[in-house]
Write a structure and sequence with these properties.
- GO terms for molecular function: copper ion binding; oxidoreductase activity.
- Belongs to the multicopper oxidase family.
- This is Laccase.
- The chain has 5 helices and 26 strands.
- It is mainly beta.
- The chain has 2 domains: about 55-250, Sandwich (Immunoglobulin-like); about 260-445, Immunoglobulin-like, CATH 2.60.40.
- The protein starts with about 25 loop residues before the first strand and ends in a 9-residue tail after the last helix.
């Protein structure tokens, strides 16, 4: 029920439907979204909250804050340009779908800032859920004048820690608690784009508003955080491209990692020297490819075979084993890496290539489902990321960079986990088969073909 076209299902043809059913075993804040082309970044997504215990007390659930980047040009059109010229520049960002139109804000502003509907009462503690659903942007979140406590990362409750600024990468979620301990007034909450990762024109004007009860209820004049800047010839950019420190993300439920039974290592590169003169991302020389009409799960259930479209990026694993995954790249660009089907263990992340001397944290390392592979180090080098997961979930699981252009350009691989047990987990083979059997004739009639990675 993972919803990844070309892996766990075929594409859904117009006029047909599919009902997803799963057991809510993990709890916390997440999202649902399309995994076909760039539909998620054109608005086909939404929040999903699974209730469970918290690692700190609060008084009021103030709701979610979803940040995404935005441009006057559609993602599909931007992708066409990205294939030719690389990283795009976004116009601004939206908080829960809202912000000021950056093109005319100095003349007669249109649109409006998102205002948290719950007013702060001094002395009360407020729970927020944060999600970065952007196509390429990573952010620094904060509320002017306030500290807050971070209590969960993705689906994992963590030892609470206090901070004033939180880095949030694409696909990541956090739960935080903010205490209303400042003077009664009006305050901006901000998602400042980290332009050192990818540029947004109005990077420091992505703002929402918090009102205290009894405040004037006006546009805030609160003071923004000050960052180190780099000179880029246009007034400077945020001088970092980073994730939250791994040392801060300590899971409440302590688990350790054993030595690997299987190690998967890939060097990541980007090139347009491929016969089509369009940029594609490569893992050890292979760019990922799936087929919307021939999903991996469909082939396993019906033929006990794995499609060969993605070549050696279809990786088989046995159950009950530890798998280490090492991703490294000389390209000075960071990548948020997401694995479906698991909370993985983040063993190491840093600049430069992974080496035998790289220290791995095996004693209760951070667990989450999106982790950042650093890039653009002090001397312009790329970076590495080492994660581990335990194979206890039979299925077909995608691993990919969560930058929209990158996964569409082939930065992905798939794990076929416990192939001999997968068929027994599919309780509705009729739906699986019907989706594929409906898609193929429709796609043939309409002349539809896969023109990206398929995921």
């Amino acid at each position: 029920m993972d919803g990844v076209v070309g892996l766990t299902q075929c594409a859904l043809a117009p006029g047909h439907s599919m009902t997803y059913r799963w057991i809510a075993e993990s709890y916390g804040f997440s999202w649902y979204h399309s995994h076909l082309t760039l539909q998620a970044y054109e608005g086909l997504f939404g929040p999903m909250y699974i209730h469970g215990p918290k690692s700190a007390d609060y008084d009021v659930d103030a709701g979610h804050l979803i940040i995404n980047d935005w441009s006057h040009i559609t993602p599909d059109d931007m992708y066409n340009d990205a294939q030719v010229a690389g990283v795009r520049t976004m116009d601004t960002g939206l908080i829960n779908g809202m912000n000021i139109n950056p093109l005319i804000k100095d003349v007669e502003p249109t649109g409006q800032r998102y205002t948290v509907p719950t007013e702060f009462v001094p002395g009360k503690k407020y729970l927020f859920q944060l999600l970065n659903s952007a196509i390429q942007s990573t952010y620094k979140f904060y509320i002017d004048g306030h500290k807050f406590t971070v209590i969960a990362a993705d689906f994992v409750p963590i030892e609470p820690y206090e901070t004033t600024v939180l880095s949030i990468n694409i696909g990541q979620r956090y739960e935080i608690i903010v205490e209303a301990d400042q003077e009664v007034g009006d305050y901006f909450l901000r998602f400042d784009n980290q332009n050192a990762c990818a540029t947004t024109t109005n990077s420091d004007d992505i703002r929402g508003i918090i009102h205290y009860a009894g405040s004037p209820g006006l546009t805030p004049n609160s003071t923004a955080h000050t960052y180190p800047r780099k000179d880029n010839g246009a007034g400077g950019i945020l001088g970092t491209c980073e994730d939250e420190p791994l040392a801060s993300l300590v899971p409440i439920l302590k688990k350790s990692v054993s030595s690997p039974h299987q190690t998967v290592q890939h060097d990541v590169a980007v090139s347009n020297s491929n016969g089509i003169n369009l940029y594609r991302w490569y893992l050890d020389g292979t760019t990922f490819q799936a087929n919307w009409g021939d999903a991996t799960l469909y082939s396993i259930v019906n033929n006990d075979t794995i499609p060969t479209y993605s070549g050696d990026l279809a990786i088989s694993t046995s159950l009950g084993e530890w798998v280490y995954v090492i991703i490294e790249s000389p390209v000075p660009l960071g990548h948020p890496i997401h694995l479906h089907g698991h909370d993985f263990y983040v063993l190491a992340a840093g600049y430069g290539n992974y080496g035998s001397g790289t220290a791995l944290n095996l004693d209760n390392p951070p667990r989450r489902d999106v982790a950042f592979m650093p890039g653009d180090g002090p001397t312009g080098q790329g970076g590495h990321l080492v994660i581990a997961f335990f194979t206890d979930n039979p299925g077909v699981w995608l691993m990919h960079c969560h930058i929209g252009w990158h996964v569409a350009m082939g930065f992905a691989l798939q794990f076929i986990e416990g192939q001999e047990q997968i068929k027994d987990t599919v309780t509705d083979t009729c739906m699986l088969n019907d989706v594929c059997n409906n898609w193929r004739p429709w796609a043939h009639e309409k002349g539809i073909w896969v023109d990206d990675s398929g995921v």
